[in-house]
Amino acid sequence: MGTNNSDKHDDLPVVAPDQHWRLDAPDDGRFWNFYDNLKEIERATLQAALDHVLAVYGNDICSTSWGKALGGGLYEFRIRLSLDTILREYGAPESNVEIPRRLAGRPCLLRVFCTFHGDKIILLLGGYNKGKDPSKKRQNKEISRARRELKRWRNARTAGGGGQG
Q1: pLDDT tens digit string along 5-32?
Q2: Is the overall model pTM greater than 0.90, yes or no?
Q3: CB of 73 within 8 A of CB of 105?
Q4: Residue 78 to residues 11, 101, 113, 143: CA-CA distances in angstroms?
Q5: How far apart are CA 85 and CA 89, in angstroms?
């Protein structure tokens, strides 16, 4: 059975640049550990997906194959495309980024866990490389970690009087 790698037909709304969401992550959180340990192509692909899909469409991703609500305010952002596909289909029209041949056409299978809050803010809670370990056991472990991170963040916010995410 073939797989359609393009989410272009997911009916995402047109969003004006001033309506984009702001991405945030706790300084001591799991997201930065995940991000820093990715290979160059994975990090570039993740950054393109965050900038050109998640920050643009926010929680509307959940009505597409890009996202899934996991309950309790936790969401999963699913990356399955290559860097060049993301930039070609979702990047800014004026960006003619030349992808090095060694990096082109290499789809990444990454997951990022997040929550949406406040005035269009997306808090990045963690992630993992599903391409390296696609098992259900790993997926459930990572979702549990993200739930703990979300709970820790909420508790810190409550204790601190609702401060910054």
Answers
A1: 344 435 566 766 778 999 999 887 799 9
A2: no
A3: no
A4: 16, 24, 9, 13
A5: 6
